[in-house]
Amino acid sequence: MDGKIRWYKQGQALLDEIRGSKPNPNSAHIWFLGQHGFALNLGGETLYFDVILNDFLDAQGKSRRCFDAPFGPQEPQKADYVFCTHDHSDHLNLETLIPLAKACPKARFIVPNPSRDKLIRAGIDESRVIGAKAGEKTSLGGIVVHPVAAVHTRFIQDEAEQDANGDCTSLGFVIEADGLKIYHPGDTWVTTALVETLKALGPLDIAMLPINGTDWMRTAEDCIGNMSAIDSVKLAMAIPIDLVIPTHYNMFSNNSENPALFADYMYRLCPWKRFHISALGEKFIYEKG
C-alpha cells in the first residue's frame, strides 16, 4: 500500500458508467471526482465541474495528490459542458483542459469572464468558451445556468473579487434543469449577499459545499481557504437546500478536513436535513421527492 486514497470506481469502468448513465425525470446522477470536482448527468447532458485530471509534483518530482486522477484528460469521454469556477490550479488547469478539449471536441467551457482569454490563448476555440458573469443567466440547451458571485481570496463581507472591468474572478453556478436546481459554489466564504442570492434562486435540491476552511498556518503559506465545515452546515440551515454534499477536503494533505466533522455538525445542528458523503468515483442517484 502506498498510503493513497483508493477509488470506488475509476478508469474505463467509471468513464463507461458516466457515458451510459440516463437519469429519470426529476433526478440526477452525480460522481465525486475529488477536491471540488464532480461529473453530473442532468437533463440529458453531462456536466463537469472543477474536474482536475492532471498531477501536481513537488520539488522532488513526487505527486502531491493524495489519490490518482480518476482517468486521463486525453481519454475518450462524454463531457458536454465543462465548468471551472476560478483560475486556481485545482479548479482550472490547462494540463487538464487542453487534452480534454481535444478528447471532447463538442464540449463547451464555462468560466468566469476574466478567465476566458486564458483558455482561448491556450488554443481552445473561442466559440467553445463562454465567459460567465455574476447575475447574468445563460441557457445551454435545456440547462439554465445562474452564475453566482463568490468571495474567495480574501474575506471582505459581501464584496467579491473583480477584475478591472468589474467582472467577478470567482463564481459559483446554480444549474437548473429537468425540475432540479443544483448549486456548485466553487470556492467561497459565506456572506450575507451570498445567502440572499441563494434564497432568491432557491429552493435548491443539492448543494456541493466546501468544508476545508482555513487556519493561520495555511494562510501564512498562501493556501487560500473556504467556508469551514460548520460554515457549510450553517449555510444549509439558512437557505432551503434538500441535500448537501461536502467537498474540497481530500486532494492535498496540507489543505484537508475530515468530512466526519461535517457529519457531526449536521447531526447536532440540523438532523432533519439530508447529506451524503461520497466515495471517490461513486455513482450517487438523487431523485426529487
TrEMBL record:
<dbReference type="Pfam" id="PF12706">
    <property type="entry name" value="Lactamase_B_2"/>
</dbReference>
<dbReference type="InterPro" id="IPR050114">
    <property type="entry name" value="UPF0173_UPF0282_UlaG_hydrolase"/>
</dbReference>
<feature type="domain" description="Metallo-beta-lactamase">
    <location>
        <begin position="62"/>
        <end position="249"/>
    </location>
</feature>
<dbReference type="InterPro" id="IPR001279">
    <property type="entry name" value="Metallo-B-lactamas"/>
</dbReference>
<keyword id="KW-0378">Hydrolase</keyword>
<dbReference type="InterPro" id="IPR036866">
    <property type="entry name" value="RibonucZ/Hydroxyglut_hydro"/>
</dbReference>
<dbReference type="GO" id="GO:0016787">
    <property type="term" value="F:hydrolase activity"/>
</dbReference>
<protein>
    <recommendedName>
        <fullName>Metallo-beta-lactamase domain-containing protein</fullName>
    </recommendedName>
</protein>
